[in-house]
Design goal:
Blueprint (H helix, E strand, L loop, with lengths): L2 H27 L8 H26 L8 H23 L9 H28 L3 H4 L2 H15 L2 H19 L5 H25 L6 H25 L7
Helix pairs in contact: 1-4, 1-6, 2-3, 2-4, 3-4, 3-8, 4-7, 7-8, 7-9, 8-9
GO molecular function: peptidase activity
Keywords: Membrane, Transmembrane, Transmembrane helix
Organism: Candidatus Sungbacteria bacterium RIFCSPLOWO2_02_FULL_48_13b
Length: 244
Amino acid sequence: MDLAQIVTFSSAYVALAFLPPIIWLLIYLREDSHPEPSYLIILTFLGGIGAAFAALLAERALINFINPDTRLGLFFGLIALIEEYAKYLAVKLLVLKRKDFNEPIDAMIYMVSAGLGFAAIENALFLFLQQVPSAELLILPGNLIAGAGLSAARFIGANLLHALASAIVGYFLARSWFHPMRKHLIMAGIILASVLHALFNYLIIVKDVFPEAMLYLTALLGFALVAVLIDFQRLKKEAITPFN
């Protein structure tokens, strides 16, 4: 097996994993009238990657306490809650106290950045573990084409879901800044995002036995996308006192 081939195909799979989230991130960054420092966007994106690994460890531990086969709904709900909280925690630890975090819309921008970092590493895990479970399969062009198809499907599915769910948390974070029950409002955002996330996961799982699942899935993402775009516009237009 040629080392150069392995390196080339591995790089291609990494590109397939990271390109869709980066495209979504560039789209969302256009909503910010006062762009954030690039290094903070990158830092938050990397924080989302770290959050994905932390969430994966927590999810593995969860399996020891809940059997997904018998408590599927509860399992999906807790998985979604773990992931949404992990993304919020990345933003809280890395950028929340920085001086550049000074406008309400920044909360949505940084949350989306973390969410798409999370999505990027999730893409990589799906591609490498499902498409190329062994080194021999890595260098098959057919597998690379199949990987591109999976990446495209996740671009309009799971990657969009992560961006939307994180944006919802970001909106509640922005609204909570001067709210007397700040922590409660943030948790409400995380729970709402988790409900969206859990419903998405459930519909993906049952799509083969429930013909209408994809229709509901499209409606779910479409409704969430419209709501998030409205939230972006509200934070840009409303006269809200800056954080700092």
